[in-house]
Amino acid sequence: MEKKNIDWSNLGFGYINTDMRFVSNYKNGAWDEGALVADPMIQMSECAGVLQYAQTCFEGMKAYTTEDGRIVTFRPDLNAARMEDSCKRLEMPVYPQDKFVEAVSKVVKANQAYVPPYGSGATLYIRPYMFGSSPVIGVKPAEEYQFRIFTTPVGPYFKGGVKPLTIRVSDFDRAAPNGTGHIKAGLNYAMSLHPIVSAHHEGYDENMYLDPKTRTKVEETGGANFLFITKDNKVVTPKSSSILPSITRRSLMIVAKDYLGLEVEEREVYLDELKDFAECGLCGTAAVISPVGKVVDHGKEICFPSGMSDMGPVTKKLYDTLTGIQMGRIEAPKGWIHEIC
Ligand SMILES: Cc1ncc(COP(=O)(O)O)c(C=O)c1O
What does the alpha-carbon distance between residue 45 and residue 268 come to, in Å, rounded to a whole number? Predict the structure, then answer.
């Protein structure tokens, strides 16, 4: 199959319209069969639940070309399960998990020509999402919904690839203690737009959000979880009920323990202890692991010993092992790699 004429190595993290997307509609209490369609446009009521009360959630995952030329996705069952959690919290109908995984495969297969080749540094980003499509004017859930999946080829999430990032401690909160931080609701990302625009304006790559109740503990950034490496090579990640349970982070903790023989710890991480860590990274589907060189807390700089020019050694090992698993160079734990074609 012939690939599209795209400059794969210079792709940014943006939207490119691909040939097909999957669409399924929910009406009268049931999902229809769903189908691949060519039209990227959506027509709906001006009063749709999503437009009035932000009733929408989404997922983010990638398809990879492996070293031996297969196209695969990484743990799509976990995206299906997390979307179920999001739907339940937002009073939306669940799209069945097995059908979710099947639909992801169908869309990727239909857009094979856009899956970046092995070694290009790019991947095919997959965006499943759902929204309330029927009119809602009193505050309540919609009665009709649409589930869609589109794909778009992407390069690195952060400009500059794996150069260490500088992030700031944000004065804004991302999620309330008993709110929606643990699900992938569109509304969480709307809340983060002003903080990220102002962070960029002030020269920072991202925001570090703290726990909104005490503002003493590290939560996550707008689009990734944190990993810290202690000076004696332990991998530590913040535990909180208001952060998104990152599939990349959960996988990296297993990689650290089972592949690299490192000790791992999921626990509360205090802002005060950042100065004691040797390395810091942001992890997520889009970022994979992006090293953080510096955290700025209201003018006070916390510089990690790993520095501002390269990834720290443990972060690099984690990165190489996880990407090795995703690209088929390293044997994956059972069930992690879902082959599409
Ligand atoms: C807020 C937030 N945290 C963490 C992540 C990382 O999650 P995952 O590894 O499942 O992509 C994401 C997105 O992908 C996110 O939006």
Answer: 44
